[in-house]
Specification:
Number of domains: 2
Number of strands: 11
Shape: globular
Structural class: alpha/beta
Low-confidence stretches: 1-23
CATH topology of the largest domain: D-Maltodextrin-Binding Protein, domain 2
Mean pLDDT: 89
Radius of gyration: 22 Å
Length: 321
């Protein structure tokens, strides 16, 4: 081999070795998980459980950063603008990833600017009311609302969230009126309902549980088409209004230009965490049904949820300036 060919071969080998080492070494810096919900929310609990396990798997610090503002659009915009190297991801939910853009303008296109990584979980929303409200079922709530026009306010965890749209769907199907009061996340929304500033809320079970057990809130029903196995004592709203169905779901996303190999690695590591018996037991206790699956599965979910809620939003005329 000539000196030139030897030098070229050596250089090529060095480049390939460096590329392989770089791929194997990812991540080579701290990883951030953005959470478009406040500390103490169910989404925050899930993110921290995943982050703690990823820290050991990645060998790098994994920081959970709460960004609950503007219905999750602030966190979503930040991950869209982040370097596409997998160091910034977001554990998102229905609102900012599928339904929020249907009711308000956002400076990005979820399906073009984000790469879905994995569905982490789903769970029903629970319809709960302030314990002082004299109702113990969905039919009684509807009857009370019709007998007391203008007196029912409902809290939500943000504009365009499943918490918001579930209430709008119930209003439409039951023929009742209620005023929407949006909050940045479940803790302030739940507190508002506990204090009686709002009388009704749709939220996942975790932030409601302690208040229900303390007798400050009363759970009436769940939003799954049938009773939810983890909450078997609660009837489904569909038992009163057939066809009512809605789930709150969560999943990880990264910037769209993130290398496929990096997306697949995150998917594999998080997928393994979601199957860990200890994590499953812990998250089931908060009402989460852990899922997993491929990036394509998550992309299909985001697309189908946006398509499913588009005619509902148009019919109800829901818009946020």
């Amino acid at each position: 081999m000539s000196r030139f060919r030897f030098a070229a071969a050596a250089a090529l080998s060095a480049i390939l070795f460096a590329a392989g080492a770089s791929a194997q070494a990812w991540p080579d810096k701290p990883v951030k998980i953005l959470v478009p919900a406040p500390a103490g929310s169910s989404l925050d609990v899930l993110a921290r459980a995943i982050g703690e396990r990823l820290k050991d798997k990645f060998g790098q610090p994994v920081v959970v950063e709460n960004k609950p503002a503007a219905g999750g659009t602030v966190a979503t915009g930040e991950v869209v603008r982040a370097a596409p190297d997998g160091s910034v991801m977001m554990l998102g939910f229905n609102g900012p990833l599928a339904t929020g853009p249907l009711i308000q303008k956002v400076p990005y296109d979820v399906q073009k600017d984000l790469a879905p990584v994995i569905i982490t979980s789903s769970q029903p929303n629970v319809l709960a009311v302030n314990a002082s409200l004299p109702v113990k079922s969905v039919p009684e709530l509807v009857a009370w609302a019709k007998a007391n026009p203008g007196k029912l306010n409902f809290a939500s965890v943000g504009n365009g969230s499943s918490s918001h749209l579930n209430a709008e769907l119930l209003k439409s199907m039951a023929g009742i009126d209620a005023v929407h009061v949006p909050f940045n996340g479940s803790p302030p929304a739940v507190l508002s309902t506990v204090q009686g500033e709002t009388q009704m809320i749709f939220a996942v079970m975790q932030p409601l549980q302690a208040q229900i057990q303390a007798g400050k809130l009363r759970a009436l029903a769940v939003t799954t088409p049938k009773r939810f196995p983890l909450l078997p004592d609660l009837p489904a709203i569909a038992e009163t209004y057939p066809g009512f169905e809605a789930l709150a779901w969560n999943g990880l996303v990264v910037p769209s230009a993130t290398p496929a190999a990096t997306v697949q690695k995150i998917n594999a590591e998080v997928g393994a965490i979601l199957k860990d018996p200890e994590i499953v037991q812990k998250m089931n206790g908060f009402g989460f049904d852990l899922i997993g699956g491929t990036p394509a599965d998550f992309a299909a979910l985001i697309r189908s949820e946006a398509e499913r809620w588009t005619p509902v939003v148009r019919k109800l005329g829901i818009k946020v300036d």
